[in-house]
Specification:
This protein is mainly alpha-helical. 61% of the residues lie in helices and 2% in strands. It has a domain of 106 residues. A two-stranded antiparallel ribbon has the order 1-2.
C-alpha cells in the first residue's frame, strides 16, 4: 500500500484506515479458511491437507502477477517498493527455526493471532512465546550480529538472478504453482480424509488454470522491461560501530500528500 500512498491516492491518516480494513478482512478470511485451528495448519506435515501450501503459493502468484500488472497500468512504481536485503545464512537458519516452531506450536505468527482472537488458549501461549523470543533475541543481538549479517547479498530479485525478463518469471511462477497444486491434490487424495477436504469443480479449476496461464503469457510477451529495470535501492546493514550512509534514490520526486489529520512525515524510507 505504501507505493500507492506515494502516488498521492490517499493521505497519511486515511492509509491507516485502509490498512486496518485490509487487516480485518485478511484475518476474517484466514479464520473462515480454518487457519485458526492448529490441527488444520499442521495437517500439511502429515500429508493430509495442503491448504497452507495452496494459500501461500496463491499469495505469491497474486503478488507477482498483480505487481507487474499494476506497474504496467501505471498504478504502482516498482522502484518505490522496498525490498529487504538478502542475508542468506541467517535467513536459512531463521526459516528452519520458524519451521520447527510451526510444527511444535501449530501456528505461525499470523495464524496465532487469528487463533487468539477466536478464543484459543494455545494461540495466546504461542504469542507470548513469540514475544519472549523477540525480547531474548534483541538482548542477545550484540552477540549474534556477526552471524545476522553473514552472507549479505543486497537486494536480490529473480529476474536479475536468472537473467530472465520479469514477465517470464511471472509465467514460470504461475506454471510452478499449477504443478504444485496438482501434486498436492494427488497426495491429499492418497493420505487425507476425503470428507474433510474441500470439494472443487474440476471445470472451475481448469478455467482458473487457463486464466492464470493466460495472464502469465501476456506478461511474458508484452511486459516492457524498462519498467522493471531500475532496481529498488536497499542498503545492507553497516559494519558494527558505523552509522548507515543515506542512499539517494534516483527516482523522480513525488510530492507527499498532505494529511488532513495533522500528521507530518519527518522521514520516509519507503514502505
Amino acid at each position: 500500500m505504501g507505493p500507492l500512498y506515494k502516488f498521492g491516492w490517499f493521505d497519511f491518516a486515511y492509509s491507516f484506515q485502509i490498512a486496518g480494513l485490509v487487516g480485518f478482512f485478511f484475518g476474517f478470511v484466514l479464520e473462515r479458511a480454518g487457519f485458526g485451528d492448529a490441527r488444520k495448519l499442521t495437517a500439511i506435515f502429515y500429508l493430509r491437507d495442503f491448504a497452507v501450501l495452496k494459500v501461500m503459493f496463491t499469495a505469491i502468484v497474486v503478488c507477482s502477477l498483480g505487481l507487474l500488472y499494476f506497474s504496467l497500468f501505471g498504478w504502482i512504481d516498482l522502484a518505490r517498493v522496498h525490498i529487504l536485503p538478502t542475508y542468506i545464512w541467517p535467513q536459512i537458519v531463521g526459516g528452519l527455526i520458524l519451521g520447527v516452531g510451526f510444527v511444535m506450536g501449530g501456528y505461525c505468527p499470523t495464524t496465532s493471532i487469528v487463533a487468539t482472537v477466536t478464543g484459543k488458549l494455545d494461540g495466546l501461549i504461542f504469542i507470548v512465546g513469540m514475544m519472549l523470543g523477540s525480547i531474548i533475541f534483541a538482548e542477545l543481538f550484540p552477540l549474534l550480529q556477526s552471524f545476522y549479517e553473514a552472507g549479505g547479498m543486497g537486494t536480490v530479485r529473480l529476474p536479475d538472478l536468472f537473467h530472465l525478463s520479469p514477465g517470464v518469471i511471472a509465467l514460470l511462477i504461475s506454471l510452478m504453482a499449477l504443478g504444485v497444486y496438482w501434486v498436492a491434490e494427488r497426495v491429499e487424495q492418497k493420505f487425507g480424509n476425503p470428507d474433510e477436504l474441500p470439494k472443487g469443480s474440476p471445470k472451475a479449476k481448469r478455467i482458473a488454470a487457463g486464466i492464470l496461464v493466460l495472464l502469465g503469457l501476456i506478461l511474458a510477451v508484452g511486459y516492457p522491461e524498462e519498467r522493471y529495470a531500475q532496481k529498488p535501492v536497499t542498503a545492507l546493514l553497516p559494519p558494527k560501530g558505523e552509522k548507515a550512509t543515506p542512499i539517494e534514490q534516483k527516482t523522480a520526486p513525488v510530492e507527499k500528500p498532505k494529511s488532513a489529520s495533522g500528521f507530518k512525515i519527518v522521514e520516509d524510507e519507503g514502505c
